[in-house]
Amino acid sequence: MGAGWEEYKPCAAMVAAQCIYAALALWAKAVFTGGMSTMVFVVYRQAIATVFLVPIAIIANRRKKKETRLGMTGFSLIFVASLFGATVNQYVYYQGLHLGSSSMATAMSNLIPAITFVMAASVGLEKVDLRRVRSLAKIFGTTVCVGGAMAMAFFKGPRLLNSSSLIVDLNFLLHSSASSKWVMGALFLICSSCCWSLWLILQVPICKSYMDPLTLSAWMCFLSTLQSAVLVSFLVPDINAWKIHSLFELGCCLFAGVFGSGVTFYLQSWCISVRGPLYSAMFNPLCTVIATVVAAAFLHEELHIGSLFGATAIVAGLYIVLWGKAADGGGKSGGSVPEHSHDVEKAAMRSESQLDVGEGITEPLLAAGNAADNLLWAAAVIAGLYVVLWGKADDMISEK
């Protein structure tokens, strides 16, 4: 019995992490709708995360004899990584969440591996061989992801929920566009994914010289707190914006800092050390499904055909890209791959769900022999959840 539970612990950890991410997206959306500033929220979240992580990092490292010195170059890299990976990334993410929806925000995060692949290939950190099926799969998966993101941004379509009939006017379907607010939200979220992908690229040189992930995370949260506070002082001069008006807002800030930045860090790190980053990345779409179901059932968020098609395309593209990445990270495949290629691949798999913490890039990808089976299993589960959502959505809303 004990051995069986040990086998399912990584799965339980990843499900718990995705539930935390989904809960944070829903809670933050409700707080922003109530009037809280997105930039002030970022400052509070990073400050709480710093207070949470710094003591843990000190306790964890006090017995270590080796002392790591940053130096000006290392500090500059961490500062820039904090600026793009935490400060700017979180601001545009929460701004997109505020203008769009929680389901769209969680779906757009699945773009990160595809965007990272494009960036890494552009700067020569990723080798693209058009004669290999895996490389073609990455390109095709990236195209599908981008197409899905564009569908979510610019094509809304009729409402899928509370529809009196399943018959949709084709002319209305083709000409129903999204509002400017919705489009801006989607563009903010795409920008967030780009910032996070850039952070992954920057993580490669940082982790080669500064390998302690816990201390690195504490430093990044601290620097991001200072950066966010400076930005807020210039962009939001109203002192009243700093006020927390309810326990609901305070609880959201605490949850974001402690659980969104602290607990999930340990869950992701432990799972990756046991099963590899590819296993962790496969659970990401679960956050999208949870957020969509809960938002539709309890927050009365509208679900449109364009959103459903776009999210499905993004998830499908994600799994295609992951399938293409699976063989590349399996180990020593040959000498033709650039030195940093696997580092970027591992970083993309390892960190795509984490919005404000840095980790070392030291663990191998999921064993190639099990990758295909695991991807098929995960894709089937996600597809089944979407089918259940479509079939039961009206019933859930009518009960309210």
Number of strands: 0
Q: What's the SSE pattern?
A: HHHHHHHHHHHHHHH
Low-confidence stretches: 162-177, 330-340, 350-369, 388-400
Strand content bin? under 5%
The helix fraction, in percent, is: over 70%
Helical run tally:
15
Distance between the termini: 41 Å
What is the average per-residue confidence, as pLDDT, rounded to a whole number? 73
Number of domains: 1
**Main beta-sheet annotation:** none
Roughly how many Å is the radius of gyration? 21 Å
Which class best fits the helix and strand makeup? Answer: mainly alpha
Which geometry do the CA atoms define? globular
Family: Belongs to the drug/metabolite transporter (DMT) superfamily. Plant drug/metabolite exporter (P-DME) (TC 2.A.7.4) family.
Main location: membrane
Pfam families: EamA (PF00892)
Protein name: WAT1-related protein
